[in-house]
Design a protein that fits this description.
Helix content: 25-40%
Distance between the termini: 50 Å
Structural class: alpha+beta
Order of helices and strands: HHEEEEEEHHEEEEEEEEEEHEEEE
Largest sheet: 6 strands, antiparallel, barrel
Radius of gyration: 47 Å
Shape: elongated
Strand order of the largest sheet: 2-11-15-13-12-16
CATH architecture of the domain at 51-61 and 243-328: Beta Barrel
Number of strands: 20
Strand content: 35-45%
CATH superfamily of the domain at 51-61 and 243-328: Efflux pump adaptor protein, beta barrel domain
Length: 426
């Protein structure tokens, strides 16, 4: 509406735009009705086709061990690797190799206290055992006195008060014996508890020496000498060890549109920017089910296993991966453009095919060159790559010209687009 009002207010501009539109339409009509159609064709031929899916991933060690600290303290020193050098990035270590040592003064003191407590509880156990022997001797004497008191009481030779006194003494002796037995059981339990604390203190002291749990290569050293590590709910990570760098994995992020064609065992090739011109091979190990979403695009992680005998591939390199999802040899190939082209007018089709309709809605129609015209052919499309497609048809053979597009050339060489700048030849 604003444009209309503007043109009504500016009649000269409106007249100019109308004249320009008429000129453009006139030239277009002239170019369309005075043209020669040239078909772009390609020759049908047999060849090999490899359909691939391209994606990017990261090279990862197959098995990585994260070595942490279970106690807190100051890093005092690093151990020695297989070659006798201090532990560092790339060091080769054996299982049980000392990686680092944490200041153990606090834990040595705790161990000494625990040992003293064990000795004290053992002495208490011996004391309780000696007291039990005394109580056993006292109950023997109390029992003998009580038996004599019973005989004297039957003979009317013992006062009632003395009788009750011997009886009470015997009962007290029995109770003391039970208490002594409980005391020795308690002393033994205290010794067991002290021994457990001693074992714990010994373990904590042993944890001050960080040892490699596996044979491998140090990928990452995350601490320095003099640094304090604090072990709380999560063990601090000190070293990252790769068990075997002769076998690697590539974690490839694959779009959900392509993941259905990738299965375990699918061959793959990949390149790394750091090795230009060199191609490596691998095989799909598994497709992980935990998808991720990035900018509303669902991506799945595919694990590609590859051999690395000379440790050529380094961890965490970027890999440009191609999954070989289909391959055919000696197949009938045509350019992909042939499947997208169709005549722009009936005059381009051979007269006997102008009323032709495809009988199979699932078939793909391609157009063959037929003199100055084209004629349709129903085919079955097979695998495709970025350039060619496999076609299956008994009527298609090598050497046929298939149309991939068209160009227009004006019959009158003087008919030119008036809007294209013209350059004077010298």
């Amino acid at each position: 509406m604003r444009l209309v009002r503007f043109l009504l207010k500016k009649p000269l501009i409106a007249v100019g735009l109308l004249a320009l539109a008429i000129a453009v339409l006139g030239w277009s009509w002239h170019a369309r009705n005075g043209h020669i159609v040239l078909f772009n064709t390609a020759t049908v031929k047999h060849g090999d086709l490899v359909a691939t899916i391209s994606a990017t991933g990261t090279i990862e060690p197959i098995e990585v061990v994260d070595v942490g600290a279970q106690v807190a303290g100051l890093i005092k020193a690093f151990g020695k690797d297989k070659n006798g050098s201090p532990i560092d990035y790339g060091s080769v270590v054996e299982e049980g190799t000392v990686l680092a040592k944490i200041d153990d003064s606090v834990y040595t003191a705790d161990l000494a206290l625990a040992q003293a407590q064990v000795e004290q509880d053992k002495a208490g156990e011996l004391s309780a055992a000696a007291s039990l022997q005394q109580l056993k001797a006292k109950i023997t004497q109390a029992e003998a006195d009580w038996n004599r008191a019973q005989e004297l009481s039957r003979a009317k030779l013992l006062a009632t008060a003395d009788y009750d006194s011997y009886k009470a003494g015997y009962e007290i002796a029995k109770a003391n014996l039970s208490a002594g037995e409980a005391a020795i059981a308690q002393a033994r339990a205290a010794t067991v508890q002290a021994q457990a604390l001693l074992d714990k203190a010994q373990r904590n002291l042993d944890f001050c020496t960080i040892k490699s749990p596996v044979q491998g290569v140090i990928i990452d050293r995350r601490v320095n000498i003099g640094q304090t590590v604090v072990a709380s709910l999560n063990a601090p990570s000190l070293f990252l060890i790769a068990k075997d760098l002769t076998r690697m994995q590539i974690w490839v992020a694959v779009n959900e549109a392509d993941i259905g064609r990738i299965v375990a065992g699918t061959p793959a090739t990949f390149t790394c920017d750091t090795f230009p011109g060199r191609e490596f091979t691998g095989t799909v190990g598994k497709v992980r089910l935990n998808a991720t979403m990035t900018q509303n695009v669902v991506m799945y992680t595919v694990e590609v296993n590859t051999e690395n005998p000379g440790n050529t591939l380094l961890p965490y390199l970027t890999a440009n991966v191609r999954f070989v999802v289909h391959s055919e040899t000696n197949a009938l190939l045509v350019p992909n453009a042939a499947l997208r082209w169709s005549p722009s007018s009936l005059s381009q089709i051979s007269p006997e095919f102008r009323s032709w309709k495809s009988a199979d809605p699932r078939a793909v129609t391609v157009w063959l060159k037929d003199g100055e015209f084209v004629k349709p052919l129903n085919v079955k499309a097979g695998a495709t790559d970025s350039a060619n497609t496999v076609l299956i048809s008994d009527a298609l053979h090598d050497g046929q010209e298939i149309v991939t597009g068209e160009t227009f050339e004006t019959a009158d060489s003087g008919t030119k687009n008036p809007f294209i700048p013209q350059f004077r030849k010298r």
